[in-house]
Amino acid sequence: MRIIQINVYSAPLPVLGGTYRMASGSIDFVESTLVEVIADNGIAGWGETCSNGPVYQPQHTLGARAAIQEIAPGLIGEEASSIRSLSRRMDARLSGHNYAKAALDIAFHDLLGRSFGLSVATLLGGALTDRVETYYSLVVGYPNETARIAADKVLKGYPRLQVKIGGHDIENDIETVHKVWEATAGKVRIAVDANRGLTVAAAIQLSRSCQAIPIVLEQPCNTFDEVASLRGRVWHPVYLDENTEDQNVVLRAISLGIADGFGLKVTRLGGLSKMTAVRDMCAIRSLPHSSDDTWGGDIIAAACVHLGSTVEPRRFEGAWIAQEYIDGHYDSANPITIREGHIAVPQGPGLGVKPDPGIFGKPIASYG
Ligand code: 0XW
Ligand code: MG
Fold first, then answer.
1. What are the structural domains, with CATH classification, of the chain?
2. Which residues contact 5 (CB under 8 A, 6 or more apart)?
3. What is the DSSP letter of 41?
């Protein structure tokens, strides 16, 4: 089974319902990049990578496309059944750029699964559940309004909320956390995500002012070292998100004991292969984590859900998908949707999701 063609597509995704506000930048529109990897058995596998703007992380749309341009020609004619050897091949063509390689890695899994009649979750070791938790991400806002939305999401069945803070007055953030806690009355788990936006002093102040509230502090400060310096100075568990730029950072955070859990992104880590190794590292130390991505449609959502279904449920912090902010689906027959705060693991071979024919128009690049 050899790769004979790779097509790259662009999908514009305007943000539904207004601006998605984070301490590290706001977005109104993103453009996703999709890859279709076709093998000589006539089967195609799909992958996706989509940054949420150029500021959240170093990854960006044009970077992904330029990286794929470097890599893709070297994959034509390669054996598709060994994802490990395809991964080595990608590294031989281009150093770094995990987020671009991730799209191809997801497509390799989809192709392999479809070719052998196995789901991606099965390829990743086997699903432990047929539906995974998700969480609702409340954008940076003001205390009363954020608390009102939080209460509504609890009624909708979300088991976990992520409250975005940072980028403005810390007193406002502290009040927001208290109001959200009062409005949700202990019915959900709460992560408070500053998206790198707090100083060390502000993170300590927030934690001490919210001592009695069982929150998790997600990526409070900008750098790994700043977050590391919080150890023993804050009351709450600290999770790393944006700093986990590759597998080695996760390994270092675990071995130094500076993270109590992680917000993990499939594309940032380099795809399902690399994320699976990180999943297993976390399992060794009983560390909780999510299976998210920055943004994107049904393909990346399916990848997050398949991986998420293989994580021990008691440590799973949810698979975040962008569905609430996107109009429509790539796959009208098998869309990935949130129901009562959970997402069903797609059935069928591969990712269990396939874009409707012609939905992305003509490829922006083709190799092979
Ligand atoms: C909630 N997310 C998973 C989606 C946005 O890209 C931000 C991100 C996070 O947790 O930082
Ligand atoms: Mg986060």
1. 3-117+354-367 (3.30.390.10), 123-344 (3.20.20.120)
2. 37, 38, 76, 366, 367, 368
3. T
- 1-23, pLDDT tens digit by residue? 999 999 999 999 999 988 999 99
Residues in Cβ contact with 1 at an 8 Å cutoff, skipping those fewer than 6 apart: 39, 40, 41, 79, 80, 81, 115
Mind giving me the DSSP string for 188-201? SEEEEE-TT-S-HH
pLDDT tens, residue by residue, 137-196:
999 999 999 999 999 999 999 999 999 999 889 999 999 999 999 999 889 999 999 999
The single residue of 164, 179, 274, 354 carrying the catalytic annotation is 164
Beta bridge partners of 338: 343
Q: Is 0.85 surpassed by the pTM of this model?
A: yes
Evaluate: CB of 98 within 6 angstroms of ligand 1.
no
Ligand 2 ion: nearby residues, β-carbon < 5 Å: 193, 218, 241, 263
Mutate to test the pocket of ligand 1, among 136, 241, 275 (most ligand atoms within 8 A of CB): 241
Dist. CA 290 → ligand 1 center (Å) = 10
Determine the residue of 135, 218, 264, 292 to mutate for testing ligand 1's pocket, defined as the one with the most ligand atoms within 8 A of the Cβ atom: 292
Instruction: Please give the structure tokens belonging to residue 60.
Output: 């960006």
- Catalytic residue, chosen from 153, 265, 274, 354, is 265
CA distances from 249 to 154, 243, 271 (A): 34, 7, 16
Q: Tell me which residue has tokens 């938790």.
A: 133
